[in-house]
């Protein structure tokens, strides 16, 4: 009976229902899809008529899904996954694929992964067009669920628990100063207390930094004078200034930066590629993930 009802739905309605189950707010879904709240309300009315169920009940915090709505979630996700698979040939031939792929990544992930992915695509699958977007952490899960994003290159800390991912590589940090200034003779980590610092903070606008607790455990309280969203900007801040900073090692060497080696180093981070569960078995996505892993393994 359920699959008979599902035949009345189009793909957009299925994606909308999944998004409503995730966000549980008409206004948030409308914002994510860039449409009016009235349009979402009308779509929800249609869904209620199709399933003969309220699906969502208003409460003080937004909307609570009914038991029937919750049971629909896994079924619809599975249907969408099967549709994705059916849209691709059994034998995946990258040189014959025509598609547009949207990837979200930080500037660092673009530098280390998506830039080289572009050239690999041009060589192996010229029919694939690539759109790279800045990483927007606040809307990441919503964009993945609605199909606006195909893949995201980031760290696991920025991913919701329901998003599968594959590891690409592990990165370490390196302390740097401007190459224009005389070399700094630092012999212990506490010496950092005597300098000004710049950090990259893509997820939150503050002067703390992701490794703050580690530095405090080492007896270091950095005087952070600027927090910026991109590592590409950081290079300019350091090379033309009098500040210190930690940059990912893969961004070095750089003619404008001088490396400073200390016995202790802050913890690094893992870079992964993630996708929505409904796309896990899509041949195109599997091929793209494989290419990213090959690119990063060779670097």
Automatic annotation (TrEMBL):
Source species, domain of life: Bacteria
Keywords attached to this entry: DNA-binding, Transcription, Transcription regulation
Keyword Transcription regulation: yes
InterPro entries for the chain: LysR-type_TF, LysR_HTH_N, LysR_subst-bd, WH-like_DNA-bd_sf, WH_DNA-bd_sf
Stored PROSITE patterns: HTH_LYSR
Limits of the HTH lysR-type domain: 9-66
SUPFAM superfamilies: Periplasmic binding protein-like II, Winged helix' DNA-binding domain
GO molecular function: DNA binding; DNA-binding transcription factor activity
Family: Belongs to the LysR transcriptional regulatory family.
Protein name, entry field: LysR family transcriptional regulator
Biological source species: Thalassotalea euphylliae
